[in-house]
Amino acid sequence: MTTPQSTPGASQIVPVELGARSYQIRIQAGLLPLLGQDLAARFKFSRVLVVSDQHIGPLHGGTLATSLHRAGVPGEIFLLPPGEGAKSWEVCGSLYGVCFQQGLDRGSALIALGGGVIGDLTGFVAATYMRGIDFVQVPTTLLAMVDASVGGKTAIDHPQSKNGIGAFHQPRAVYIDTDALGTLPARELRAGLAEVLKYGVLEDAAFFEWLEANLAKLLARDGAALAYAIRRSCEIKAAIVGQDERESEGGRRALLNYGHTFAHALESCTNYQSYLHGEAVAVGMVLAGQLAARRGLWSKAEAERVEALISKAGLPVKLRKDDPPPEDLHAATFRDKKTRGGKLRFVLATRLGATEVFKDVPADEALKVWQDAPRG
Ligand code: GLY
Model-level pTM? Predict the structure, then answer.
């Protein structure tokens, strides 16, 4: 799947059931050229603004713009500089300005074309512009396809907290054109696979086994294998979000943070410079496995089986030599949004495909995991 297909592949629909806020995730190779027609048939937006970045825009913006134009959907495309820096007050403010200049009204919609940064920022602007307008997610990275574009978490960063300012705002639709993965750098594809593996560990042992058997195909960008992995990931996420839209206390959405308590600490301590999010999640899942095994919750053999697949996917399973000392990483763990009243919370596996939130993991046990983590 390194070249875009000229004819569209089979379409798969994953519903996200949220009452009045329900929507569909449509997954299809060659979907981008059909998107305008589908939008025009299903929604009557007065105008749209496509938000993308200077990497993705030149690759896919033209196809989307042509498709919207042909379907008679009025709108423009606006390109932001690439990178996490776009999730700032300044860029957010300039995007509101573009929305006003473009004359977007409460019947208009924003279309996020890109990775998680574009989706999070565009979603946040949609949640707040004129007290909330519609938006549509068109993710182009594997990570955004299987996680960020689904479930309605939108955010920008604050200097003191990544994703610190945000809102729950569900998209009206998610369109996943798997052909977009043909241009995704290999490192980003692997980082996206970390979140795919996460779904197997947290919810579905049979899917994990399928991933073990099909990893080589996924790394080789086999279209059918990728489409299945994306669909199954979206089904698992959609089911969990359908049960617990707003990550309520005691609800199931927190399980989606498997590996993320360690990952967020690692990312923040390294200033978001050395690890892609999926890479940090890969290390975080390995450390969560070690913590669960150390506490006697999970078999060491299964934790090692997960670590082996993460490693086979070309993802990191160790800290880097020059990562900050364990004590600093441990201190950062307490700054996680999941911490309550100074108590650490971890999502830990009890068997492959089953996870729970543990609310009172003693601090010294978590510190020991950081201290014992191999470096290399
Ligand atoms: N990425 C975790 C969630 O959407 O809840």
Answer: 0.95
Q: Which CATH superfamily is domain 186-372 in?
A: Dehydroquinate synthase-like - alpha domain (1.20.1090.10)
> Please, what is the average pLDDT of the chain?
95
131 is catalytic: yes
- Sorted by where each begins, the domain ranges of the chain are 12-183, 186-372
Reported as a single tens digit per residue, the pLDDT across 314-331 is 999 999 999 999 999 999
Please state the atom number of ligand 1 nearest to the C-alpha of residue 147: 1
Q: Is 153 in the pocket of ligand 1 (CB under 6 A)?
A: yes
* C-alpha 256 – ligand 1 centre gap (Å): 6
Query: Domain 12-183, what architecture?
Result: 3-Layer(aba) Sandwich (3.40)
Q: Sorting pLDDT into bands at 50, 70 and 90, what band is 160?
A: confident
Told to judge if 217 belongs to the known catalytic residues of this protein, a careful annotator would answer no
pLDDT digits (tens, 9 = 90+) for 70-118: 999 999 999 999 999 999 999 999 999 999 999 999 999 999 999 999 9
User: Among this protein's residues, is 198 annotated catalytic?
Assistant: no
Residue 151, ligand 1, Cβ within 6 A: yes
Pocket test for ligand 1, best of 117, 142, 147 (most atoms within 8 A of CB): 147
Which one from 247, 267, 279, 302 is the annotated catalytic residue?
A: 247
The reply to whether 247 belongs to the active site is yes
Active site residue 304: no
What is the SS3 string spanning the chain?
A: CCCCCCCCCCCEEEEECCHHHCEEEEEECCCHHHHHHHHHHHCCCCCEEEEEECCHHHHHHHHHHHHHHHCCCCEEEEEECCCHHHCCHHHHHHHHHHHHHCCCCCCCEEEEEECHHHHHHHHHHHHHHHHCCEEEEEECCHHHHHHHCCCCEEEEEECCEEEEEEEECCCCEEEEEHHHHHHCCHHHHHHHHHHHHHHHHHHCHHHHHHHHHHHHHHHCCCHHHHHHHHHHHHHHHHHHHHHCCCCCCCCCHHHHHCCHHHHHHHHHHCCCCCCCHHHHHHHHHHHHHHHHHHCCCCCHHHHHHHHHHHHHCCCCCCECCCCCCHHHHHHHHCCCCCCECCECCEEEEEECCEEEEECCCCHHHHHHHHHHCCEC
- Residue 337 has a pLDDT of 66
Give the atom of ligand 1 at the shortest distance from the alpha carbon of 256.
Answer: 2
